[in-house]
Write a structure and sequence with these properties.
mainly alpha, Endonuclease III, domain 1, Endonuclease Iii, domain 2, 2 domains, about 55% helix, elongated, binds iron/sulfur cluster
Amino acid sequence: MGTTIPKAPAARKPARKPAPKRPAKRMTPRDRARVDEIFARFATATPEPRTELRFESPYTLVVAVALSAQATDVSVNKATDRLYQVADTPLKMLELGEAGLTDYIKSIGLYRTKAKNVIALSRILMEQYHGDVPLNREALESLPGVGRKTASVVLNELGVEPAIAVDTHVFRVAHRLKLSTATTPDGVERDLMAITPEPYRTRAHHWLILHGRYTCIARRPKCESCLIADLCPSRELFLGA
Ligand code: SF4
């Protein structure tokens, strides 16, 4: 007996154009050595950084990352711990339905829009990908609620493609460390990808997020206990404050 997919009009969005490329940032030998040392210290301190979002499969990762926009990982984990007990596949999510899903995620910001997107992307996965998550950027970014940042997190976390997704933490840390002066997340991402040594690219996203979340925090960065303080051009700004 075949499986019936709960019906509803599936919203599609056009595939995003890739961000325009620009020449790799030129670095002096001194800058190169500084950047290498920053990442070497992160690697020594946290050799295997992981996302703090809990997931068991590509699907639960995509949903968790989509839910995490403008929300903390803690709040998403709290919701998905319960949600994934009843809906951890696209089919089960469709059976739960938008109203049922909303009940599980209503503690998360923008939950109404996120519920619509998760249901719509689940339907597309069932109808076009046999319930699997397509692990390529173009297909991922065409899913409702999945932008460049979400796709980057997913592809990087699953080891498909090194990517440095730029959220508010990564943006702030990159600027304070003068790793980028770009004014947009896409620009910062390009700068970071251009200067991050290849062996560190898959882990750089996690290190920068964790550093921004726990040490280089927005209001009063903990420069006195920062493991890269001697390599940071912004340290004096805050230590004297
Ligand atoms: S020294 Fe301060 S400003 Fe620089 S990276 Fe460390 S915590 Fe952030």
